[in-house]
Amino acid sequence: MTKFRPCIDLHSGQVKQIVGATLSDTSSGLRTNHVSTLPASHFGNLYREHGLTGAHVIMLGPENEAAAREALEAWPGSLQVGGGITAENARRWIEKGAGKIIVTSYLFPEARFALDHLKAVLVSLDDDVEKLVIDLSCRKTGSTWTVAMNKWQTLTDMEVNEESIRLLEPYCSEFLIHAADNEGLQSGIDEELVFKLGQWCTKPVTYAGGARHLHDLDLVKDLSAGRVDLTIGSALDVFGGSSVTFDNCVKWNQQQSIG
After folding, report:
1. Best exposed site among 86, 156, 217, 244 by fewest CB in 10 Å?
2. Against a cut of 0.85, is the pTM above it?
């Protein structure tokens, strides 16, 4: 059943909400919606207090590892961490307290999907697929969606479709999918993508990008027949937003459990 899933996005060691399409290797052109004065550990504790499992901690570039560790230490074994994850460091992040690791760019050397890289990550996790989340964050390309890597700036050779989902599902416990063109804009979710994910995915999947109202949770629930979860970022009051309160998202989840 659809639920609200929170996030902790880290950039230059701080918790931020960023317009995803403006991310790059330089700070020029970067559009930031919010920079929190609170440490990452505050949000880890907040999510723990409200039992919001499955939250993702994303390191957007360098200088974020210390902040990510702080978040994980606040709720060991319960948060997911992504950003720069490889076969070489995946186990280390589990040892640092991540419940699951999230991987994208490592699976696409030179922007081409490499199954051997995916298998190498799993080997580092003792072939425990429950520890692995595959991030298929994407950009709209014509009538389809293409997986984007390298801070969502580089398009890969993989489309997000039923075929690619079927290929990857045996190797992971769930998917995370940011609609990069919508991320941080509060301009509405990609309804077509959410609908398709509900049809294609048999494992849990979290969609992020464009959510701006509490009723977007109901919209995602209806579009996906309850198969897709939703992350709300920039619109959320704890991240400087004004249209959605964190408390109401918590209440929404509780109502789903009761219903």
Report:
1. 86
2. yes
More confident residue, 22 or 54: 54
CB 77 within 8 A of CB 54: no
187-196 pLDDT tens trace: 799 999 999 9
Tell me 187's DSSP state. S
Long-range contacts of 139-142 (CB under 8 A, 24+ apart): 139/180, 139/181, 140/179, 140/181, 140/190
| Pair 137, 153: CB distance under 8 Å | no
What local confidence, expressed as pLDDT, does residue 22 receive?
54
- CB-CB neighbours of 241 under 10 Å: 20
Cα dist. 190→220, 223, 249 in Å? Answer: 10, 11, 20
Six-digit token string for 166: 């079927």
For position 201, what pLDDT does the model report?
Answer: 98
3-state secondary structure 53-97: CCCEEEECCCCCHHHHHHHHHHCCCCCEEECCCCCCCHHHHHHCC
- The tokens for 93 are 């992040």
CB neighbours of residue 134 within 10 Å: 25
**pLDDT value of position 38:** 97
- Asked if 17 and 234 count as a contact pair (C-beta separation under 8 A), the reply is yes
Using one digit for the tens of pLDDT, what is the confidence trace for 30-46?
A: 677 778 999 999 999 99
Pull the structure tokens for residue 77.
Answer: 């074994």
Q: How far is the C-alpha of 138 from the C-alpha of 114, rounded, in Å?
A: 17
CA-nearest of 220, 222, 186, 241 to 4 is: 220
Residue 191's H or E segment, with its range, is: helix 191-200
Answer whether 62's CB lies under 8 Å from 27's CB. Answer: no
Adjacent-strand bridge partners of 17: 34
Residue 253, SS3 per DSSP = helix
